[in-house]
From TrEMBL:
<keyword id="KW-0274">FAD</keyword>
<protein>
    <recommendedName>
        <fullName>L-2-hydroxyglutarate dehydrogenase, mitochondrial</fullName>
        <ecNumber>1.1.99.2</ecNumber>
    </recommendedName>
</protein>
<dbReference type="InterPro" id="IPR036188">
    <property type="entry name" value="FAD/NAD-bd_sf"/>
</dbReference>
<comment type="similarity">
    <text>Belongs to the L2HGDH family.</text>
</comment>
<dbReference type="Pfam" id="PF01266">
    <property type="entry name" value="DAO"/>
</dbReference>
<keyword id="KW-0285">Flavoprotein</keyword>
<dbReference type="GO" id="GO:0047545">
    <property type="term" value="F:(S)-2-hydroxyglutarate dehydrogenase activity"/>
</dbReference>
<keyword id="KW-0560">Oxidoreductase</keyword>
<feature type="domain" description="FAD dependent oxidoreductase">
    <location>
        <begin position="43"/>
        <end position="424"/>
    </location>
</feature>
<dbReference type="InterPro" id="IPR006076">
    <property type="entry name" value="FAD-dep_OxRdtase"/>
</dbReference>
Amino acid sequence: MVRSTIQSLKKNLPSSWVLKSLKSRYYSSMSISSEVPKERVECVVIGAGVVGLSVARELALRGREVLVLDSASTFGTATSSRNSEVIHAGIYYPPNSLKAIFCVRGRELLYKYCSQRQIPHKQIGKLIVATASSEIQKLHNIMDCGIKNGVEGLVMMEGSEAMKIEPELRCVKALLSPVSGIVDTHSLMLSLVGEAENCGTTFSYNTTVIGGHVEENHLCLHISQTKHLEASNGKFPLQPEMVLIPKLVVNSAGLSSPALAKRFDGIQSAVIPSAHYARGCYFTLSNTRVCPFKHLIYPIPEDGGLGVHVTLDLNGQVKFGPNVEWIDGVDDVSSFLNKFDYSVCTSHMKIFYPEIKKYYPNLEDGSLEPGYAGIRPKLSGPKQFPVDFVIQGEDIHGITGLVNLFGIESPGLTASMAIAEHIATKFFKC
């Protein structure tokens, strides 16, 4: 069934449609043209980021026929390819929150997965540092939270101890997290794709889910070729090019998950959280032959993020970031097509230098160069209390076989396999 559906997606989608006038922004089963092809499938995962890939693999391993749809030309083109590639320990998140539970469990699964499959990764450890006496209590609070979350091996160090193992570091106190690490995200995603495909999963790229309607308490998905949505001048097509009728749907669309859920006609808008977007820029350290640090170095967390920290990649490159820049005015089509502004403004350097020099005073002026930027899919805005992951099933929205994933920001990479395990176990038992 999945294979025949893909053939329809790739070969039989009409090249154009006569657009009809509709009073509603959304589709209903009565407004879909009888000419629109309809196909039944077992399980659809929307979004081929690291979380979607993990979910697809897990479902396929459990015998599901899985179809993965993504609007991009390949996997992992949005948040999954624009993060720090850090394997988080699970220190920061409120005890018993989904972020804490899935980060700790996901870290265990991720290290095991990478070790067994020779995926490049390294458990290099992290130092969270207090650079002023006023931050020491916050550091102790972070340690207490990490212990409650079950993070192993946390050690509070005096500044002198921390500076012995990191001579370029300056701090008054530091918290060592030895289980933190880094991973080659692309290699990880490539492995997940390969395993999912080996278990029968089919991937359809350049394919956008533009909405849906509920029929007999199941969600019918409205599908369009990405190129047609791109040519629509910022407006959604009034007719889909195909309707998929799945038994199971995982909305893992990342940055566009809330916007997509709002286009599922039949779901109460009150259960869909508001989306907030926070851009974060990274700068790389140039003109250095020797890496100044052996560990990841993190300051005390700031509003909306974990502060401008030091990240090392597996090639030895040093990255600083990300900062937090709140953005708004993102329309639905832009979010569906990942048309975000990912440029790195060099003017941010004047903000980065003083922040970095608080813990790395020997950073030379002129040694930073623009790296890359990413967008965090957040559910809380500026000055608002951070919001947990939202994994939303039928008990919340009332639609059989639909799971919405909202706000899967950091530590989403680390938590990805635990999220997949949870979804497959809780929602797709039969």
